[in-house]
Amino acid sequence: MHPRLLKTFLAVARTRNVTRAAGELNLAQSSVSDQIQALEAELGATLFTRSRQGLDLTPAGEALQAYAEELLALADDARAAIDATKAETAGSLSIGALETIASAKLPGWLADFQAVHPDIDIRLKIAGSGELRRRLGEGGIDVAFCFDRPGASEPDERFARRPVAAEPLVL
After folding, report:
1. pLDDT digit string (tens) for 20-50?
2. Chain CA centroid to CA 46, Å
3. pLDDT value at position 117?
4. What percent of the chain has pLDDT over 90?
5. Residue 118's closest CA among 145, 93, 81, 83?
6. Which of 7, 17, 112, 170 has its CA 20 to 30 A from that of 77?
7. What span, in angstroms and rounded, lies between the C-alpha atoms of 61 and 16?
8. β-bridge pairing 48-51 and 54-57
9. Can you name the CATH fold of 90-171?
10. How far apart are CA 108 and CA 4, in angstroms?
């Protein structure tokens, strides 16, 4: 069942009239009739009967209606998911980091990242660990490179954490 046929079927079911459905779909009345006939032939069932009030769904048409709506919704979801994958390769990324990490580690990492994702605009914000966590929680930055606090309370469950380096502290 082609989505175009299902859209036409639902328009006729909603309007109960081929002419109104054709106007809604910007099609000729004959095209709407042809599409309904093609769908009926494919399914081997009559989907509408004529009455004084217009076209009524047959039991087969009623059975198809919910599935047609669900199939079209799934097709829309699939398109949105595909579009989302395209969107992931462009845009911006706001990174927060401690000054030491920003100067010592990030230049190489960011150069490698930019080579793979040239369409992503990177913005870097320098701050202390506490400020970076606050900005991350408020949505001011997308990712933070900061230190864990030994002995601190439980980590904030809103954030995914991944150690990327261990640095000795020398006095």
Report:
1. 999 999 999 999 999 999 999 999 999 999 9
2. 36
3. 81
4. 49
5. 93
6. 17
7. 12
8. antiparallel
9. D-Maltodextrin-Binding Protein; domain 2 (3.40.190)
10. 50
